[in-house]
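Open question from group meeting: does this chain pack into something compact, or does most of it stay loose? Before anyone orders reagents, we agreed to write out a predicted structure and look at it together. Recording both the input and the output here so the notebook holds the full record.
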Amino acid sequence: MSEDAIGGARHTEEGTSARQGTEEGTPIRQGIVPSYLLSRLAESGLYRQAAQAARQTLIAPSPLQHRTQLRLSIDEHGSLVAEVEAAPDRTISDAHNTEELPGTVVRREGDAPVADTAVDQAYDGLGATFAMLLDAFERNSIDGAGAPLDASVHYGTDYDNAFWNGERMVFGDGDGEVFQHFTASTTVIGHELGHGVIQSTANLEYAGQPGALNESIADVFGALTEQHLRDQTVDQATWLIGAGIFTKNVKGVALRSMLHPGTAYDDPELGKDPQPADMSGYVQTTDDNGGVHINSGIPNRAFALFAVAVGGKAWETAGSVWYRALTGTLSPKATFAEFAEATIREAEAVGTSTADAARAAWTSVGVVATGAGADSSTRTKKADAPKKGEAPRKGEAPKKPKSGKKSPKGEKKSPEGEKKPAKRETGKAGNA
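C-alpha cells returned:
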C-alpha cells in the first residue's frame, strides 16, 4: 500500500520511491498526518521537542507488513430471535516505543479492557469501524471476507503519526507539544482502515488525483465511522477528520474539515490548512505524492455537500452511493471527473433527486460543469467556495420512514421514498 498516515509521503524523493515501492509490491505506509505539516513542524523553534519528534517521524523507515457472533433480539410477536452475523477479530499489540512490529500482544478479541488507555481506544476504534462497514454496506471487515483487524500502539518514540501499512494499524503516541492521542480519534482509525477497504477494491494509485481520491474516500470512511458510532445525522456531524489529536497549544480543531476545507487550523508555527475547497484552488505539486492530502479537500467537500443535501444519516444513502462507486468498475487511475461520473451513476440508481444532489455537489466544487456530466479534471472556473463559518445550502430535509420494515427483496426505500439498490454480497460470514 502507500504511505498514508493521515499524513502521507514524506518528501518529493520519498514520494517517488513510494510509488516505485507500490509497483514492486513493497508495502508503503499510509499515514494520517501529512508530510507537509510534519515538515513545517520540524522547523519549529517554539516546540523543540515536537520539532525533533517530527524529524524522527519523517525519517523513520517503513516497517514490513472468520469470526461470527450471535445476536439475540425480540421480534414484534415477543419471540426470541437468534441471528448469526459477522464479528470482528481484533488483536492489539504494544511496540513498547520501538519501531519493531508487531510488538507484544496485549489484548485479543473478547478480552477485558486493560490498564493501557491507548490499547483500549485502539480496540474500540477497530470495532467501531467494523460495525459501520457491516451495518452500512454489509461488508465483513476491510476485505469483505472477515479479515482480522490488527493494530500496534506505542510505536516509536514521540512518533507523530498513525498509519496503515498494508497489514495493520500503527499508532504513535505523539510528541505531547503539538500531537497527542492518535488512538482517541475514531475518524483517524476509520480513515486508516478505510485504506484497507480501498486496497481490496478499486486499489486507487497513491499519487495525483487517484491518490487524492484515495485519501478523500478514506476520510469518508473515517467520518462515517464516527457518525455511525454516535448515531448522528448529517446536521449533527462535525465533518472533522482528526479532531482532538492537536494539543491545546495549537490554534486548530482538526487536521481537515470535509465541509469547509482549508479551515481546520491556522497556527503561527504550523501555518494554515492548505486544502482547497474547489478546482480553482487545485494544487499542482510533486510533494506529498502529487498533493494527495491537499487536493483531497475537493472531493471531501463534494461528499459532505451531497450528504447534507440528501439528509438523514450519511452512511445510509450518501455513503452507500460513494461505496458502490468505489466497489464498481472504478479504475485504479481514476480522476476526480471519472469518480464524479461513477457516483452520479450510482445516485441515479437511487432516484432523480439523489442524482441531482450528487451532480450539484460535484458542480459546486468545479469538477462537473453546470448542466452537464463530469468536466475536465483540470477545470479552474471558480465554484462557490465556502467561507469560514458559513453553513452550506441544503436540499429539502427528507422524512425518515415510519416503519423499519424492508421493501421487497432486492431494494430498500430511501429516506426520499426512492428505490435504493440492494447491497452487493461482500463475504458475510456463515454459521458458526
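Observations to bring back to the group:
The CA atoms of residues 125 and 275 lie 26 Å apart.
The two ends are 32 Å apart (CA to CA).
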